[in-house]
Amino acid sequence: MSLPVVPIHDPVANPASGSDLAAADVASLEEEIRALAREKDAVILAHNYQLPEVQKIADHVGDSLQLAIIGKKVPQATIVFCGVHFMAESAKVLAPEKRVLLPNLSAGCSLADSITAESLEDWKARYPEHAVVTYVNSTAEVKALSDICCTSANAASVVRSLPQKKILFTPDKNLGKWVAAKVPEKEVVVYDGCCPVHDVLRAASVNRVKAAKPEAVVIAHPECRADVVEIADEVCSTTAMLTAVERHPQAHTFIVATEHGIVYQMKKRWPDREFIVADGCIGCRMHCPYMKMIDLVMVRDALVRGKHEVQVELDVAAGARRALERMIAVPRDA
């Protein structure tokens, strides 16, 4: 599946270009957004991969499920979700009484699009004795057909917690293979989907970066291919990457094998450390165009005009909510 070409106006990915707006205009826009959020009783949530200026304006920054749970708990009646469509859907599923806005309706996800409800139904018919574990990077329709969901942080725990010995894991094949290796007592059949941003990375590219920085700690997302995971010092979710830095107090340099947007949060929390994107080319291969489709103007417009409101059909939402809540109830060490 090809990714759309979108202009990059990301000071992390392309620091020389700066922003399309002058600094004074950005400050004014930030002030306007904050005032609008208070006026509209809205909370702004931003994924770790969003543009730095969007992360800066957000009330909360994190991974997709973490943000959806925060959206349910906070008192605001409106959620402005700066992420991609399936994330906004999850927020709506967990907080059906709230209005959820996605500033750019074109912000999709190649991984979520790699499986449909129809293909999952066909797959389930082929493996009737298997429990379906679905990664949260999926549509509400696919979640609704699943027994339970998982995140990259708790996938192994979720699979281990199930009474069934046979598992269908969807849709990310790399995460599924990583889970199968961690839970060898289960028979895990893996769907053939992937995140193109992570799947494009090869160990050869990481080793080339490592050769220039031999003392660096390699941190990889489990959506990466097995050859990358095998050479990583830490394999963890985006949120866990921040705590992974804490586990290496003597290290100064970290090679990060995930979408480059996470580097903004890492530099913010650890300004004295060096973070290098694993492909050696920030904004080249490890760049998700969908995650860079929301800017400050879109956030402002979402608040002003109430766009774009995300809706999930009640029966689909009920099924997706069941799968998500089952996952949330699983202890991490199950």
UniProtKB/TrEMBL annotation:
EC number: 2.5.1.72
This protein's record includes keyword Amino-acid biosynthesis: no
Domain of life of the native organism: Bacteria
Coiled-coil regions listed: 19-46
SUPFAM superfamilies named in the record: NadA-like
Entry keyword ATP-binding: no
Cofactor: [4Fe-4S] cluster
InterPro entries on file: NadA, NadA_sf
Keywords carried by this UniProt record: 4Fe-4S, Coiled coil, Iron, Iron-sulfur, Metal-binding, Pyridine nucleotide biosynthesis, Transferase
Biological or metabolic pathway of the protein: Cofactor biosynthesis; NAD(+) biosynthesis; quinolinate from iminoaspartate: step 1/1
Cited Gene3D superfamilies: NadA-like
PANTHER family in the cross-refs: QUINOLINATE SYNTHASE, CHLOROPLASTIC, QUINOLINATE SYNTHETASE A
NCBIfam families the UniProt entry points to: nadA (TIGR00550), PRK09375.1-2 (NF006878), PRK09375.1-4 (NF006879)
This protein's name: Quinolinate synthase
Record organism: Anaeromyxobacter oryzae
